[in-house]
Amino acid sequence: MAEGQLSPQSGDDVPVSTPLHRAAGRLQSALPAGWQVEVVGAADGAPDSGQILRALPVSE
Fold this sequence. Notes:
Blueprint: H1 19-30, E1 35-41, E2 51-57
Antiparallel strand pairs: 1-2
């Protein structure tokens, strides 16, 4: 897989492709070097308790 591309994984390590994971890949490609995108579960108490995208600077 090309550098900077996300490889989303399901619980049993089978790659998945959902609209949110595809959006994460597009966001990752638009961000400057040194940033990463994660798909994470929403915080407890969230109204829909779905997943969200989080963009973070890469920690070294």
